[in-house]
Design a protein that fits this description.
By secondary structure, this protein is α/β, with parallel strands linked by helices. It has helices at 3-12, 24-32, 52-60, 73-85, 123-130, 154-163, 170-179, 193-213, 218-237; strands at 42-46, 65-70, 92-96, 109-114, 134-147, 168-169, 182-189, 241-250. It has one domain: 3-Layer(aba) Sandwich (Rossmann fold). The protein binds S-adenosylmethionine.
């Protein structure tokens, strides 16, 4: 992607509570599957964005230390402010980093968390690259956009063939987790509300404003139109695909 395209995308997604589908209930449901974590777990949140899930983790595990990384500094600044307001700034350390080249020693973390971000480097590459950062028996918990239908509707299939060609059926992602040397502990599909409340509803409001801001900018209007089509796909074909949580455990 060009820098210009990233700038437009970041502008479209500025000031949203989340940068992808999710909600605290789902975050906590996945966390409860990570049995046997130490009392003060070391957690790495990869692609944290503005950090709604980082804060949910910090609240649920009051002795956890969380490293939260993203490559977009404004999200990290946002999270720093939220962590401060929530009184847990001392336990959430943000750092600008590339998820494909993380600056941490092997065996550092009890739990690696990544909501809606692993796709950015590719799930299989992420499964391989992040495993060495886990302590023995550590957990990797992530969400991923997946097909739920065996035969997706043509319109939705055509849209995602353009927008996310690497999208797989959820069973194929589960297989990839195990093939990468993890035990799959749990998986569940996020509820439909998790797409709307903190993500598509505020995003739709923002897109309406940006239509006016970028009225003379064909490239930006194209990106805005694609975002609107993505939301329309969800309205029309939301049962054919979903966001799924995968809770995996490192097996030595
Ligand atoms: C879909 S958003 C999800 C954000 C957040 N986890 C949430 O659920 O709201 C993906 C995040 O990954 C970050 N990201 C994408 N590629 C990255 C990379 N190579 N290294 C670090 N962060 C990256 C983006 O800046 C963005 O914040």
């Amino acid at each position: 992607m060009t820098d210009r395209l990233w700038d437009i995308l970041f502008d479209i997604h500025a000031d949203l509570p989340r940068q992808g589908p999710g909600d605290d209930e789902s975050t906590l449901r996945a966390l409860t599957q990570c049995e046997g974590l130490p009392a003060a777990p070391a957690i790495l949140d990869i692609g944290c964005g503005p950090g709604m899930q980082t804060l949910a983790l910090a609240r649920a595990r009051p002795e956890a230390h969380i490293a939260a990384i993203d490559f977009h500094q404004p999200y990290l600044d946002d999270l720093d402010g939220r962590a401060d307001a929530a009184g847990c700034a001392d336990r959430i350390v943000t750092q600008r980093a590339d998820m494909a080249d993380l600056p941490f020693a092997h065996g550092t973390f009890d739990l690696i968390w990544s909501e809606g971000a692993a796709y950015s480097m590719g799930v299989d590459a992420a499964l391989a690259a992040w495993k060495p950062l886990l302590r023995e028996g550590g957990y990797l918990t992530f969400t991923e956009l997946v097909w739920l239908a065996d035969e997706p509707p043509e319109t939705a299939a055509a849209f995602f063939a353009e927008e996310y060609p690497a999208m797989r059926h959820d069973d194929a992602v589960a297989d990839a987790v195990e093939a990468a040397g993890y035990a799959l502990i749990d998986r569940f599909v996020l509820p439909d509300a998790a797409w709307w409340t903190h993500y598509y509803t505020p995003l739709s409001e923002r897109l309406a404003l940006l239509d006016r801001k970028y009225a003379d900018d064909a490239e930006a209007l194209g990106v805005i139109a694609t975002s609107k089509r993505e939301i329309e796909m969800r309205r029309r074909f939301g049962t054919a695909y979903g966001y799924e949580f995968f809770v995996a455990r490192e097996t030595a």
